[in-house]
Amino acid sequence: MDTNLVFFGLWCVLTGYLIFRSTFMPRILGVLLAIDGLGWMTFMSPPLGHYLFPIIAVACGLAEIPLQLWLLIFGVNNERWKAQAEGIQQASSDHVDAAGAEAPKRVAVRLPLLL
What we know:
Helix content is 67%, strand content 0%. The chain is mostly helical. The chain has a domain at 3-78. It is elongated, with a radius of gyration of 20 Å. The protein starts with a helix and ends in a 22-residue tail after the last helix.
């Protein structure tokens, strides 16, 4: 069994799902990446995976290349990112419990990029 390809397929499916659910990137990229991940996960049965490899390679090209190009050219939608971050911040600051006391303020911590 090609374990590394199966785990890569699982990563592709999960990342495709997250891209599909987000509003920062086109949903079609998430769908294509999830389909690509399912193809890689066929390597749980190596004979099936090797037999379907030409189809998996096409799915890989149709999913991963547009995703890379999208990230290089457009990136994520900054306006949506900031709007969602502000919405989360407002929702957490407007929260009042049943007794009428405000929830404690949360402090945002930025981690270094190289962590």
